[in-house]
Amino acid sequence: MSMIFFACVVRVRDGLPLSASTDFYHTQDFLEWRRRLKSLALRLAQYPGRGSAEGRDFSIHFSSFGDVACMAICSCQCPATMAFCFLETLWWEFTASYDTTCIGLASRPYAFLEFDNIIQKVKWHFNYVSSSQMESSLEKIQEELKLQPPVVLTLEDTDVANGVMNGHTPMHLEPAPNFRMEPVTALGILSLILNIMCAALNLIRGVHLAEHSLQVAHEEIGNVLAFLVPFVACIFQDPGNWFCWLDQTS
């Protein structure tokens, strides 16, 4: 009977998933434990070594050494000794396949997705090979657990990570910074005056041409636009000075 359902390798310092086993379980309870595992992965730096979080149907076990941690979702019937033996075997396989430089430079999730094949093989071995064939490895892990028991986490611990609790992110409201524009320089004032004068001149010419065009012919509309367009351009040519001037006068 399968007792190890899911396993993944993560980077300890930021919880970045490096590789994971193919997921064949899609029940609501299992997906909830996947979320708990992902949440816990973000805080592994706080729990060096081994740790467990147990629920009614599933349990999470993790084992971290250096900047690499292996995590697994297991059945509650899975002995902790077997789970940690599995995680240690997985850790050795991964660190033998990839050096610390590659692990440290990984920038995207599941950068070593091809390691999934190894995870599946090791998972199958622990799920279907009899314990008697792994007796020496299990005894070694059992002695280590007696000398240094794993950290026991509650389900609430797996729900809190990176400021997130139960899927809700607390809102931190801070007063908005009070920005004020810099004073307008003499050159800016001159530019503003010239823009106003040019805009007024173009507006006057455009109005006169509009009156004339309505009396003469439709083809004169192009001439009207030739003055009205520069008028609009002058208005929006230097909006920064407009806003600064308005800010100073307010």
From TrEMBL:
Compartments reported by the entry: Endoplasmic reticulum membrane
GO biological process: endoplasmic reticulum to Golgi vesicle-mediated transport; protein transport
PROSITE patterns: LONGIN
Name used for this protein in its record: Vesicle-trafficking protein SEC22c
Entry keywords, A to Z: Endoplasmic reticulum, ER-Golgi transport, Membrane, Protein transport, Transmembrane, Transmembrane helix, Transport
Record has 4Fe-4S as a keyword: no
Residue ranges annotated for the Longin domain, each copy included: 8-119
Keyword Transmembrane: yes
UniProt function note: May be involved in vesicle transport between the ER and the Golgi complex.
One GO cellular component, as annotated: endoplasmic reticulum membrane
Pfam family, one: SEC22a_C
Topology of the protein relative to the lipid bilayer: Multi-pass membrane protein
InterPro entries per UniProt: Longin-like_dom_sf, Longin_dom, SEC22a-c_C, Sec22a/c
